[in-house]
TrEMBL record:
Keyword Signal: yes
Thioredoxin domain mapped to chain residues: 244-386
Lineage: Bacteria, Pseudomonadati, Bacteroidota, Bacteroidia, Bacteroidales
InterPro entries listed in its UniProt record: DUF4369, Redoxin, Thioredoxin-like_sf, Thioredoxin_CS, Thioredoxin_domain, Thioredoxin_ResA/DsbE_sf
Record's protein name: AhpC/TSA family protein
Subcellular location per the Swiss-Prot or TrEMBL entry: Cell envelope
Length: 395
């Protein structure tokens, strides 16, 4: 009897192990397609992104006939990026659907414009949601290009007015995009890939909808790994947002000045109001904002306001060349690793990103440009609140 009980316990243990492994069993999906105009100096790559970090999961060459194929082992269902030879890319949901994804590629035109066409995913229900989400992003980007070109070609109005008009149109586009994202969340809450939609719905006005979607997913599978991961990330994002709220001390950092003789960060400017500007040499809107910063510097630098620019350039030579061209008369530093860590620390993805800190180093305003910046400085110096100017959109 003792022997039999041992055998039964062993069999039970084996069943538990087999059952547990089946829950977390790795699946293999096929991702294949064709590139019309291959650019064979670069591979096709499957990329996993975690915040500002990215990991190349797999890569392959495009064959002579333009085709490619991956056998992707999926142990973590979720959103991945398929990069086509560093020219086009598309986000897809990897779990249990085989996919066919065709790309146009770099094209053979003598003058190449990097504005690739929409990429459609042939897959299943989860990637139907990804197609709709990707289409929303694609159309929004195309409309922003159209608005910029249209507004900046209008004769007889100054750049400041053009910027303000463009900003109003961008806000309208943002509202429209969020409305479409809410539609996807409401009507595709039964799909696992709806988790890819929810990050675009941050904000109190969408909290109820997000909780409804999460509750529906939990009713299907409360221990679904991507669901648990999303909830943990949202909790951390909420905590980070609270740490960066107005009235909080701005996070400290120290980066080298151009001559390498000093390390500077926002903590070194306490005692003065600080305009903290994140920019890069390659960022057109950043360069367009510099004349406004110069005007603000001329007006306020002798009134207790300091200015401090932090470049997220990867290329040190490009940063130095831009500084020389722009001739900015205030403190400058370059963030290491193309600003990846400081962008995560300050929770921004678009530049220019301009903050104002008070004399104690507390955040008093974020994402200011043009008149919105000078209005805030005037308010802080005079103690009289001015009418709010619309903040422009980072690009």
């Amino acid at each position: 009897m003792i022997f039999m009980r041992k055998i039964l316990r062993l069999l039970l243990l084996v069943c538990i192990v087999v059952t547990t492994n089946s829950v977390f069993a790795q699946k293999t999906i096929t991702i294949k397609g064709k590139v019309k105009f291959p650019y064979n100096r670069f591979n096709m790559e499957i990329i996993e992104r975690q915040g500002f970090d990215k990991t190349i999961i797999d890569s392959c060459k495009v064959k002579d006939d333009g085709t490619y194929e991956f056998k992707m082992k999926v142990d973590k269902p979720g959103v991945y990026t398929l990069d086509c030879q560093k020219w086009q890319s598309v986000q897809f949901w990897a779990e249990d659907e085989d996919l066919e994804i065709n790309f146009r590629g770099e094209d053979t035109a003598r003058i190449k414009i990097k504005n690739p066409p929409y990429v459609y995913i042939k897959g299943g229900p989860n990637n139907e949601v990804m197609n709709l989400m990707n289409w929303n992003g694609y159309r929004g980007y195309q409309l922003m290009i159209g608005i910029s070109q249209g507004v900046y070609r209008i004769p007889g109005i100054d750049d400041q007015t053009k910027q303000e008009v463009s900003g109003k149109f961008y806000d309208m586009l943002g509202d429209e995009s969020r409305a479409r994202i809410r539609f996807l969340a409401e009507h595709y809450a039964d799909r696992n890939s709806v988790l890819a939609v929810l990050p675009a719905l941050r904000g109190e006005e969408n909290e109820e909808l997000v909780q409804q979607v999460l509750a529906r997913l939990e009713s299907k599978n409360p221990n679904y790994a991507p669901l648990l991961k999303y909830k943990a990330e949202m909790a951390e994002a909420k905590a980070q947002k609270e740490r960066l709220a107005e009235g909080k001390i701005a996070p400290e950092f120290s980066f080298p000045t151009p001559d390498g003789k000093k390390m500077l960060g926002p903590q070194d400017f306490k005692g003065k109001i600080l305009v903290l500007d994140f920019w890069a040499s390659w960022c057109g809107p950043c360069r367009a904002e510099i004349p406004h910063l110069k005007e603000a510097y001329k007006e306020y630098s002798n009134k207790g306001v300091a200015f401090f620019s932090v470049s997220i350039d990867k290329d040190n030579a490009a940063w130095r060349k831009a500084m020389k061209e722009e001739n900015m008369p205030w403190a400058q530093v370059q963030a290491p690793k193309a600003g990846k860590d400081v962008m995560k620390q300050y929770q921004f993805s678009g530049i220019p990103y301009i903050l104002v800190l008070d004399k104690e180093g507390k955040i008093v305003a974020k994402n200011l440009r043009g008149k919105a910046l000078t209005d805030k400085l005037e308010e802080l110096l005079s103690g009289k609140k001015k009418s709010v100017a619309m903040p422009a959109m980072g690009m």
